[in-house]
């Protein structure tokens, strides 16, 4: 008879564990900052032993119209849970957006109107669809926290606020710093962690995801679940992805972001310039490529990164095309810093519009005569195609929309149709 100990899991060395589920390993080990309580091993055990799909919560406040790659880090983690058979709860914080998350803010956030929140919430779902599984039955719950927060009575609010002390609130770094520096901290801001925590109670969350900046709010969720007699959630934080500037958190307000709805060329040209020291981190947090398989050459890494991410959000063909166009445009100089190309709105032009008139109106040339000289000198390109006929004209904005107009190697305008 086999000795019992030889089959016991504790006798199997970790590195050669035969039943190590790759999905669980990906969830608990790749792109994770912290798991509490108990670390990766505790969550892995819970995932392996559960007899029902777990409820995984990720809350996003619709404070702005666009999601960016920073948000996609937690969304991708949520998708991994779906792929392992669990229920993703994508919580649109339509009520908490009206309060405003004080996390990471040096002063109170401007408060949004319900109409602004509603407009942003609408676009979020279309963007989240690019990452989450919206199709497999039972894998996704789309919720809004106004469902339970809007109806809380004053009595319930008092009970909720009785769960936390001022000392605990001031342990939150953002509040402490502002309080010490004399920057006003408004009382409604204290409600934010409590309301986000209460969301976990209402949803009976088993796991909550968030960036590392959400630690305090996630822990409040655990405390409130204990108060309500629930099993407290695991908290899994993901690292904060730095933006294209190379050191600050990727954020809309810092204009260092890559938006999830950006066109392939813009995405590509931003991502092929991710600073070297961040390329591996972008691979880790935004792709599934094993880090051991990355090319040694730094330039090849940047290109692979840009192509992989463009392919995820668009298609492999779009990624190839973006690479070709970017190469032909020799994107340097003006796009060096953030990868962004200045936009020029073509709605107000008079059509048919001559190319030299467009070059002057867009500021790419000083005058129509200068534009004519540049065209004849072979310096003008539209989407990488040289145009040498100064009489070239366009009948409507549809012929130009989305294209990149270029003079020489350093001056670009993306032609867009936006009224301003
Ligand atoms: N750059 C980032 N990297 C990783 N996670 C992020 C990043 N930005 C936001 N998140 C996470 O996405 C979730 C939703 O964030 P939230 O709606 O509060 O956006 P935010 O932090 O205010 O973004 P922004 O500063 O762009 O407005 C949170 O868990 C947050 O930690």
TrEMBL record:
Q: What is its main location?
A: cytoplasm
Keyword entries, A-Z: Aminoacyl-tRNA synthetase, ATP-binding, Cytoplasm, Ligase, Nucleotide-binding, Protein biosynthesis, RNA-binding
* ATP-binding among keywords: yes
Where are the bilayer-spanning segments? none
EC numbers on record: 6.1.1.1
Give the UniProt subcellular location, in the record's own words: Cytoplasm
Q: What is this protein called?
A: Tyrosine--tRNA ligase
């Amino acid at each position: 008879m086999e000795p019992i100990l030889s089959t016991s899991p504790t006798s199997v060395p970790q590195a050669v564990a035969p039943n190590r589920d790759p999905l669980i390993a990906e969830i608990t080990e790749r792109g994770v900052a912290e798991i509490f309580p108990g670390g990766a091993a505790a969550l892995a055990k819970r995932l392996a032993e559960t007899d029902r799909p777990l409820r995984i919560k990720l809350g996003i406040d619709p404070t702005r119209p666009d999601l960016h790659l920073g948000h996609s880090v937690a969304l991708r983690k949520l998708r991994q849970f779906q792929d392992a058979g669990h229920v993703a709860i994508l919580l649109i914080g339509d009520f908490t957006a009206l309060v405003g998350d004080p996390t990471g803010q040096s002063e109170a956030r401007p408060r949004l109107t319900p109409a602004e929140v509603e407009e942003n919430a609408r676009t979020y779902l279309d963007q989240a669809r690019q990452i989450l599984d919206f199709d497999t039955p039972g894998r996704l719950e789309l919720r809004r926290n106004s469902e339970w927060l809007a109806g809380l009575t004053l009595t319930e609010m008092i009970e909720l606020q009785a769960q936390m002390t001022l000392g605990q609130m001031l342990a939150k770094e953002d509040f402490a710093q502002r309080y010490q520096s004399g920057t006003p901290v408004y009382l409604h801001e204290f409600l934010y962690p409590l309301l986000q925590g209460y969301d976990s109670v209402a949803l009976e969350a088993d796991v909550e995801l968030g960036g590392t900046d959400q630690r305090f709010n996630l822990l409040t969720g655990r405390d409130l679940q204990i108060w309500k007699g629930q099993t407290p959630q695991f908290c899994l934080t993901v690292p904060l992805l730095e933006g294209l500037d190379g050191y600050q958190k990727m954020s809309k307000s810092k204009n260092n972001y890559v938006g999830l709805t950006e066109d392939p060329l813009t995405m590509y040209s931003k991502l092929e310039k991710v600073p070297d020291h961040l390329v591996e981190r972008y691979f880790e947090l935004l792709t599934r490529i094993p880090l051991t398989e990355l090319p040694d050459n730094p330039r090849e890494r940047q290109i692979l990164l840009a192509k992989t991410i463009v392919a995820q959000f668009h298609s492999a063909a779009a990624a190839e095309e973006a690479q070709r166009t970017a190469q032909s445009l020799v994107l340097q100089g003006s796009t060096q810093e953030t990868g962004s190309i200045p936009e020029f709105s073509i709605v107000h032009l008079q059509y048919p519009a001559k190319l030299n008139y467009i070059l002057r109106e867009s500021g790419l040339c000083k005058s129509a005569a200068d534009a004519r000289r540049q065209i004849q000198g072979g310096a003008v390109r539209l989407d990488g195609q040289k145009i040498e006929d100064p009489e070239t004209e366009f009948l409507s904005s549809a012929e130009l929309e989305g294209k990149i107009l270029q003079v020489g190697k350093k001056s670009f305008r993306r032609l867009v149709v936006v009224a301003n």
